[in-house]
Amino acid sequence: MIPNQIRQSGVSAYVISQVLGSTLAAGTLRLIFNGDQDNFSGTLSSDSYLQTFVIEFIITFYLMLVVSGVATHNRVIGELAGLVVGATVLLNVMFSGYY
């Protein structure tokens, strides 16, 4: 983790919270989009599940790296933080979006 910024003791709680939250969100979407509406093309993978997982892991890591850097670095211009995070999301969608 980032030295002197994030305590090591809070990392496990953070990871558990993220996994639990994403699982609950996926379950909620599954309940909402039930029946004929469960084939939303934005969630279907055209590749293998392993390749999709690896790409998702890489872009999520990259996004969290940028967000953590913008949020914790003391030389970052605060007004541009949203622009940097937004550009990162845009590049993630461009490189790994649905095709």
From TrEMBL:
GO molecular function, one term: channel activity
This protein's UniProt keywords: Membrane, Transmembrane, Transmembrane helix, Transport
Oxidoreductase found in the keyword field: no
Mode of membrane association: Multi-pass membrane protein
Transmembrane segment boundaries: 12-33, 53-73, 80-98
InterPro entries: Aquaporin-like (IPR023271), Aquaporin_transptr (IPR034294), MIP (IPR000425)
Principal subcellular localisation of the protein: membrane
Any single Gene Ontology cellular-component annotation: membrane
Highest taxon, organism lineage: Eukaryota
Record localization: Membrane
Transmembrane helix among keywords: yes
Family (UniProt): Belongs to the MIP/aquaporin (TC 1.A.8) family.
Name recorded for this polypeptide: Aquaporin
Organism: Cucumis sativus (Cucumber)
